[in-house]
């Protein structure tokens, strides 16, 4: 179980997060939504212990920031929004970095990495230097590294924590779905995945639970059908919108409207 208690983050004397409390169960894909500056990435950074905060962050009933780093490396993996590598590793070597905390033979490591390369359709990138990858290609490679770090290739893996900051921001449609499907599948094995997304419709398609942030606080919390409602979203996004059910799934789809001339803006 993952828990935040009264989490507060201040920058430049101004609150960015204010007494955020939440409890997350294993087996769920949680999506953080909200406008720019709402506190989504700040919340993720605090969970990564990358920034100072007040309050408590607990993982398996223990403070996350007191865990042994090597042990934590096998329990938590992070995909940051901006995380370039300036060394001439190739994609295979970058993914293999996720296996560093494990004691295994080179053949065992190679088998895990090859499996993830195939799963995420990275075969054509396997031998390319990461400094030569596009933003989307690098994003996919880093996501594969996260999967490698948490033993996601093993369907018996449980009770791990994956943190994803805008994992689909540079991806085309096909790879957006491939990445989010893999993240959702990993969560449903019995793990916890927390992802920052901007696309409301992708959140509706994949999230088990949505946390909608605004001005550093959680304004709405629940399954997509409870959060992705016009009366909830429109005051925060300040944009006219229509919401209808997906024709193939019983989930809401959001259609935004132009600011000029929109009947509901």
UniProtKB/TrEMBL annotation:
Instruction: Indicate yes or no for the key word Cytoplasm.
Output: no
Pfam families attached to this UniProt entry: ABC_tran
Q: Which residues form the ABC transporter domain?
A: 2-240
Instruction: Give GO MF terms, alphabetically.
Output: ATP binding; ATP hydrolysis activity
Q: Which UniProt keywords apply?
A: ATP-binding, Nucleotide-binding, Translocase, Transport
Q: Does the keyword Chaperone apply?
A: no
**Which SMART domains does its entry note?**
AAA
Highest taxon above the source species? Bacteria
- PANTHER family the UniProt entry points to: HEMIN IMPORT ATP-BINDING PROTEIN HMUV (PTHR42794)
Q: What job does this protein perform?
A: Part of the ABC transporter complex HmuTUV involved in hemin import. Responsible for energy coupling to the transport system.
Protein name, entry field: ABC transporter domain-containing protein
Q: What is the scientific name of the source organism?
A: Pseudoalteromonas rubra
């Amino acid at each position: 179980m993952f828990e935040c208690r009264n989490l507060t983050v201040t920058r430049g004397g101004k609150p960015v997060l204010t007494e955020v409390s939440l409890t997350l169960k294993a087996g769920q894909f949680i999506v953080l939504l909200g406008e720019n500056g709402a506190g989504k990435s700040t919340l993720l950074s605090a969970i990564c212990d990358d920034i100072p905060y007040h309050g408590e962050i607990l993982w398996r009933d223990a403070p996350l920031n007191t865990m042994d780093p090597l042990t934590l490396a096998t329990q938590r993996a992070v995909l940051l929004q901006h995380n370039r590598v300036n060394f001439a590793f190739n994609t295979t070597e970058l993914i293999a970095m996720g296996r560093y905390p494990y004691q295994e033979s080179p053949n065992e490591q190679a088998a895990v990495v090859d499996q993830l390369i195939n799963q995420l359709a990275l075969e054509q990138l396997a031998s390319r230097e990461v400094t030569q990858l596009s933003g989307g290609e690098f994003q996919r490679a880093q996501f594969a590294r996260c999967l490698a770090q948490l033993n996601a290739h093993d369907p018996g893996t449980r009770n791990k924590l994956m943190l994803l900051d805008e994992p689909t921001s540079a991806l085309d449609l096909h790879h957006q779905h491939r990445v989010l499907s893999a993240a959702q599948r990993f969560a449903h094995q019995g793990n916890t995945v927390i992802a920052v997304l901007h696309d409301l419709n992708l959140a509706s398609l994949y999230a088990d639970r949505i946390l909608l942030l605004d001005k550093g606080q959680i304004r709405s919390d629940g399954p997509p059908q409870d959060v992705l409602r016009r009366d909830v979203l429109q005051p925060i996004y300040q944009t006219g919108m229509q919401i209808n059910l997906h024709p193939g799934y019983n989930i809401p789809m959001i259609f935004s409207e132009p600011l000029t001339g929109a009947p509901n803006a």
